[in-house]
């Protein structure tokens, strides 16, 4: 028996050594960078973005409805803003676990579970009652936020299985889905909420549409098995490694500050337009214009990112966002509101489209991409968590717009400065100005 065991052990050892040697001699799998299957995956990711972040980008419609109608007599603008800010936190923070789960090969579990939870949360939102803050918070803030978060990182990261040289372009194209969703869904929601259908049936109609689109997206998306790393490294080890990378740490700090002010127009632009005397019929389209023009911003700069670098493209975009937020204080009419929506849509779209490629560009190998994006977005999510409520508190019931505008604009510009510092360190390390 002992002889047999020894022979079995020896055979197993030789087999393991042969397997290891064979694995070491095999070339690393390379994404195809095109082909029918790759583009169908991109379409599936695009649809997922249309649904999930399209819902998130439409929160300004909900915020306006809650402040002026649904929660008007019971809660302040700052309290209501916590619903959207907690949703944003969870969209980003869930990526801490979703990114690691994706790297470990659990793509379908994340996408199917997150899609089901999102549709379920929207149907629960349609059952809420006016003035019942906790019902809206649980369904839209917590439920929908977690659902979007556990689908966002895998949906973006799976593109790294199919694209390498064109990865920034593919990610930029995919994020145009969230922009178009953020343009079309507000039209649908405003028409339903303020029409004969009403809030509850309107939310159910939106949930049904999203359910059908998510089914199509799930059928189109697929990871490449040979590209799945099955990464099982500990979170503590990954944090320790990433936090000793100065460009990464400074970039994360910059994104935290950026997130504190970046979403101010998405939350308050429609409300600001109405309070400045813009007719509600036009004000309802401010988010549509903003998200519509961001489609161009998400796709166009990514064409050049592969040659001159994502940092080089994203820094002017974030600087433009900060300047435009500060200029909001001087806007009082339809023409100014439309101009702001168009310009902010473009620059914010460029930032959103380049964000994931920028974070991923600091990964030393593809197996780190999901974890690096997840950890970075988690920290950035805390900036989004506190940014909108602070802006709402600074706004006060008297609607003192200059106070939240100053806070949000300076937060974005300070974050932009830290991104420039990170870019300088990366450029010096790599010995090239194009990063």
TrEMBL record:
Protein name, as recorded: Major facilitator superfamily domain-containing protein
Family statement: Belongs to the major facilitator superfamily. Monocarboxylate porter (TC 2.A.1.13) family.
Pfam families, per the entry: MFS_1
Annotated localization: Membrane
Highest taxon in the source lineage: Eukaryota
One function term, GO molecular function aspect: transmembrane transporter activity
TM spans (from-to): 38-60, 80-99, 106-127, 133-156, 168-189, 201-221, 248-271, 277-296, 303-331, 343-363, 375-399, 405-426
UniProt keyword annotation of Transmembrane present: yes
Main location: membrane
Organism: Collybia nuda
Membrane topology classification: Multi-pass membrane protein
Alphabetically ordered keywords of this record: Membrane, Transmembrane, Transmembrane helix
GO CC annotations on file: membrane
Cross-referenced InterPro entries: MFS, MFS_trans_sf, Proton-linked_MCT
């Amino acid at each position: 028996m002992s002889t047999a065991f020894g022979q079995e052990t020896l055979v197993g050892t030789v087999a393991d050594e042969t397997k290891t040697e064979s694995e070491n001699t095999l070339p690393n799998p390379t994404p195809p960078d095109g082909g029918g299957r790759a583009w169908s995956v991109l379409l599936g990711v695009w649809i997922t973005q249309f649904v999930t972040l399209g819902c998130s980008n439409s929160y300004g419609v909900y915020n306006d409805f809650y402040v002026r109608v649904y929660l008007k007599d019971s809660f302040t603008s700052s309290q209501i803003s916590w619903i959207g800010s907690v949703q944003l936190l969870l969209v980003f923070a869930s990526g801490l676990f979703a990114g690691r789960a994706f790297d470990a090969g659990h793509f379908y579990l994340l996408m199917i579970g997150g899609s089901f939870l999102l549709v379920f949360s929207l149907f629960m939102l349609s059952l809420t009652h006016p003035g019942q803050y906790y019902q809206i918070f649980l369904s839209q803030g917590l439920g929908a936020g977690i659902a979007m978060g556990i689908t966002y990182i895998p949906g973006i990261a799976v593109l790294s299985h199919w694209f390498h040289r064109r990865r920034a372009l593919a990610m930029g194209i995919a994020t145009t889905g969230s922009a178009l969703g953020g343009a079309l869904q507000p039209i649908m929601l405003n028409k339903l909420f303020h029409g004969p259908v009403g809030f509850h049936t309107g939310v159910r109609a939106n949930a049904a549409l999203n359910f059908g689109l998510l089914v199509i997206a799930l059928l189109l998306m697929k990871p490449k098995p040979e590209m799945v790393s099955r990464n099982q490294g500990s979170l503590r080890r990954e944090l320790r490694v990433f936090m000793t990378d100065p460009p990464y740490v400074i970039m994360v700090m910059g994104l935290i500050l950026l997130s504190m002010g970046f979403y101010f127009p998405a939350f308050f632009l429609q409300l600001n337009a109405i309070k400045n005397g813009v007719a509600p019929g036009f004000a309802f389209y401010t988010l549509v214009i903003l998200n519509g023009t961001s489609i161009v911003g998400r796709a166009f700069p990514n064409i050049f990112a592969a040659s001159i670098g994502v940092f080089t493209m994203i820094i002017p975009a974030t600087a433009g966002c900060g300047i435009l937020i500060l200029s909001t204080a001087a806007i009082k009419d339809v023409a100014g509101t439309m101009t702001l929506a168009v310009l902010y849509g473009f620059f914010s779209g460029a930032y959103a489209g380049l964000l994931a490629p920028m974070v991923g560009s600091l990964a030393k190998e593809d197996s780190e991409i999901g974890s690096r994006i997840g950890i970075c977005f988690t920290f950035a999510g805390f900036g989004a968590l506190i940014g909108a409520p602070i802006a709402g508190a600074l706004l006060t019931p008297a609607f003192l717009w200059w106070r939240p505008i100053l806070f949000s604009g300076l937060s974005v510009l300070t974050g932009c400065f830290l991104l420039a510092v990170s870019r300088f360190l990366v450029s010096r390390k790599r010995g090239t100005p194009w990063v």
